[in-house]
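Predict structure. Chain length: 139.
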Amino acid sequence: HRLGRISFLRAKSKRDYIGNKKPSSWMFVSKIAASKEYRNLRGLYARNFSVPLPIDSNRHIVVMEFKKQKLLNNVRSLRHPKRMFSRIINIFQNFLAHGIVHCDFNEFNLLVDTKSGNVTVIDFPQLVSVVILQALEFA
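Prediction complete.
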């Protein structure tokens, strides 16, 4: 997980990492974001969602299983694009069926195996429950 200085300014207004706290640095916000992402990944992985195995978290880093997949935005062609699209939509619907909004569900946060068609979702520090009013902004 990497939350840099530039995105720190946006994170303060768009994400609930810090609430009413006044952080002294972007590293403080990155640490909170990494901790939240690790907790979210642990919960999702335990419930068999298509996410990487979370291994550990320390400071502003989340260590997770390595997947031999490509980011969807780097894939130039697919053997079965309609099938891949269907899998991605099913993952999205599965999140919603369990009351989860990813909040950043896009081609930069989807890892795909072009041979098997497996899809893995990444980037979870901003995950929210659908019962939170803020979720309506992202759904």
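Summary: The first strand starts at residue 54 and ends at 58.
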